[in-house]
Amino acid sequence: MKVLMVTMGMNIGGAETHIVELSAALAARGIEVFVASSGGVYETALAKHGIPHVTLPLDKKNPRALLSARRGLAALIEKEKFDIVHAHARIPAFICGTLQKKYGFRFVTTDHGVFRLDPVLKKLSNWGEYTFAVSEDIRRYLIENYPLNPAHIVSTVNGINTDTFSPSRDGSAVRETLGAFGKKAVLHVSRLEKESSVCAEALIGAMELLHGKAILVIVGDGAYIDVLRRRAASVNERLGFSAVMLVGARTDVADYIAACDLFVGPSRAAMEAMASGKPTIISGSQGHGGIFDESIAAAAVASNFCFRGAALPTAEILAADIDRLMSYDAPALEKLGAYAREFILQNYSVGKMTDSQLAVYEKIAAYRTDGDPDIMICGYYGYGNAGDDSMLSCIVDGIRRIDPSLAICVMSACPERTRALYLVDAVNRFDLPAVLRKLERTKLFLFGGGNLFQDKTSTHSLLYYVKMVGAAKRSGAKIMIYANGIGPVTKTKNIYRVKECLAAADSISLRDGYSFDFAKKLVPEKNIRLTFDPAVLISPCENPVGEERYFVILPKKNAPDAGEKLLRLISHIQGKYGLRAFLISMYDEEDLDYCRKLSAKTGARLLRPASDSEIVSALAGAALVISSRLHGLIYATAAACPMMSFSDDVKLESYLDYIGLGKKTGVSCSADVYSEAEYLCMMADRVLLDADKIRETLAAGLPMWRTLAEYEFSEAVRAVRGNGAEILGERKNGNV
Question: Starting from the edge strand earliest in sequence, which strands make up the sheet with 550-554, in order?
């Protein structure tokens, strides 16, 4: 594998050190690594590891420099044929993004911090196909502010070389040059630009407040260094000795850390000091955290040791923390430093960082997003419906887990967004000539997910899908009707059309008993199997709710009289059980405004989860889920949460029957919008009373349902890989 790292420059800084350590670790594992930047002192470190550096004007924003950098990168990429291009700053990422389509490399970025949300720059930002975030708060920032697929934002760590930064390192030579005899030496390492020098300025003031009990050494360079030198000179003059020293940029930072008694600073530099076993005060231009110990560890991790959003450091605050540390006896300081080092060893090793990033490289290197498609996926995609989007995500990921080299093309109402979110080829579903050209060259037409064969919404929609199945048949592609729901289909002519589609299919899997029975009546000779919706495979992440006792409603714009009944139901549960109500919109185009109205009338909080995993996480912590959409129930199933439906759609009742919670099972968590409000409240009472039993039922069924869902991915791959019509052979009529 060949990887190109691209960044603005290679002078001293946290991101730059990250690049050096990552590049060296990848090279040690046999990866061929190049680095492109405007250059800097770390070029020497790269050379020591045999990593070529290419100098380009990547640190400039003027058009001439941008064009020059682009030409240079294009020539380098064309010559070296990189598998992965990895950008580490906004300008390089923008330039690389303009080259990706032409040269076909896989493109990833790392976000080392938060950016100013300028509307123009935000629009121009390119975060690649996968984005690494060096802390959870940066990951959250990306999810909340950019149209990215949360599944493609990977949390990584700033890996620290714990051999270089070690308590065993001898800093005595540096100590002598500092003239720190008899005084505690405080070290600060930072890029000295105006916006990043808040802590440095405050530290200079703190030295005066400490009345000469300590000396301060500031390592770093930047446009603001002369201002700091003048302020340091004033303090030194008043104190009568060199209490503050600015030594410029250094490549021997590890020696300076070894020479100091304590460290004050943020981010990577603080982590390096901790790895060296030094008592550390986390403080920087984004916020002040204080002395690192068990009490602030979690908050430090969440903010990448920056404490974004906390109060900024002042001379008074820093002087108090430094004075407190200087009052500790030697055993206490040793214990503090030992805890800090162990924390880095356990959580921030270079190996851990490299593992997380190499795993993504290896996964996406095999992806094909151009050329003839192996699989063409047809469904209700590109409309922003959470249920359909989750199905597509699971289908693509499931197939790629088995064979990442298969080329997948999706028919979408918004192909640009679909390409970006799922790293697939996509074609406008309404551009019929383009669709047909793709169909002529595909091996498998996967008619994927959802209730596509129905005429409840309109016959026009049904006709579209019927025509697509017919076109796939004429093209010679295998046809897989995948995890579909069928019905209701009421018109005689439409029933016949559905029958023709089922008869044309090489493989049919259906996701509920109603659909299975309907299909078997139409094509009794076909091998049809019951499966499970792939959304059941979604795993929870951190719960975004932050409440202990709550329930969740996933409503749908219902019949005109349904609103008041739902209001009664919400009020009943809130009043009787003291549960907080949360609302989730599954399909913003239809449901968001309705959710806002419900929120205004009931006081329920509108929750906007950033991903499918967050929806499942929110439901996993709930006492009850009330859903008017099928995928709300499927998400609740994945979360093993008690649920009840509130709809007039037969597919919800059929689904509940399938998982053992419907009317046919005797448990009955299904209702419709025509039920009386009192009945709905009684049903909620019954579900909450039987909550433990329902959780047990779901937990017992989940392994089998997930197995069924996973099976369909292997069926699709087998169909492409040449097993012909035998893709149906291992399962009969709903049985594994």
Answer: 605-607, 580-584, 550-554, 625-627, 643-645
Say if residues 203 and 285 touch (Cβ distance below 8 Å). Answer: no
Q: How many domains does the chain have?
A: 4
Strand partners, 529: 509
If asked whether residues 399 and 339 sit together in one domain, one would say no
Looking at the domain assignment, is residue 731 inside a domain? no
Task: Look at residues 515, 525, 575, 573 and name the one whose alpha carbon lies nearest to residue 691.
Answer: 573
Whether the Cβ atoms of residue 111 and residue 127 lie closer than 8 Å to each other? yes
Q: Residue 599's CB: how many other CB atoms inside 10 A?
A: 17
Residue where the block lists tokens 């697509």: 468
Instruction: Yes or no: say if 31 and 3 are a contact pair by the CB < 8 Å rule.
Output: yes
Domain boundary among 537, 565, 590: 537
Whether the Cβ atoms of residue 615 and residue 386 lie closer than 8 Å to each other: yes
- The CA–CA distances, whole Å, from 503 to 239, 374, 379, 497 equal 92, 22, 19, 10
- What distance in Å separates the CA atoms of residue 619 and residue 163, rounded to the nearest whole number? 44
3-state secondary structure 503-564: HHCCEEEECCHHHHHHHHHHCCCCCEEECCCHHHHCCCCCCCCCCCCEEEEECCCCCCCHHH
**How many angstroms from the chain centroid is the CA of residue 314?**
35
Residues 6+ apart with CB under 8 A from 194: 223, 224, 227
Partners of residue 106 on adjacent β-strands = 84
User: Which run of H or of E encompasses 399?
Assistant: helix 386-402
DSSP type of residue 195: G
Q: Looking at the structure, tell me whether residues 319 and 410 fall in a common domain.
A: no
Q: Supply the CATH number for residue 388's domain.
A: 3.40.50.720
Residue 52's domain is classified under what CATH number?
3.40.50.2000
If asked whether residues 569 and 662 sit together in one domain, one would say yes
Q: What distance in Å separates the CA atoms of residue 630 and residue 655, rounded to the nearest whole number?
A: 8
Helices (H), 423-491: 432-441, 459-475
Identify the CA nearest to 231 among candidates 243, 214, 249.
243
Name, in order, each residue with C-beta under 8 angstroms of 556's C-beta and a sequence gap of 6 or more: 586, 587, 590, 591, 594, 628, 629, 647
Residues 453 and 508 in one domain: yes
Domain hosting 224: range is 172-348
| CA 37 from centroid of its chain's CA atoms | 27
Last residue of a domain, one of 485, 504, 537: 537
**pTM of structure:** 0.76
Do 513 and 627 lie in one domain? The reply is no
Instruction: State the DSSP H helix or E strand holding residue 426, giving kind and residue range, or none if neither.
Output: strand 425-428
Q: What is the mean pLDDT of each run of 10 residues along the chain (736 residues)?
A: 96 88 96 96 94 96 93 97 95 94 93 81 86 89 87 89 94 87 89 94 96 94 95 96 93 94 95 97 96 95 91 97 95 96 93 92 87 94 89 94 94 93 94 95 90 85 94 96 90 94 96 92 94 92 81 81 82 96 90 90 90 92 94 95 89 90 75 84 94 94 96 94 49 38
| Residues 618, 504 share a domain | no
- As given in the structure block, the two tokens for residue 506 are 């090489």
Same structural domain, 413 and 481: yes
The tokens for 539 are 């795993």
Cα separation, 483 vs 709, in Å, equals 8
pLDDT 10s digits, 455-509: 887 889 899 999 999 999 999 999 999 999 998 898 999 999 999 999 999 999 9
Q: What's the token pair of residue 463?
A: 């006709």
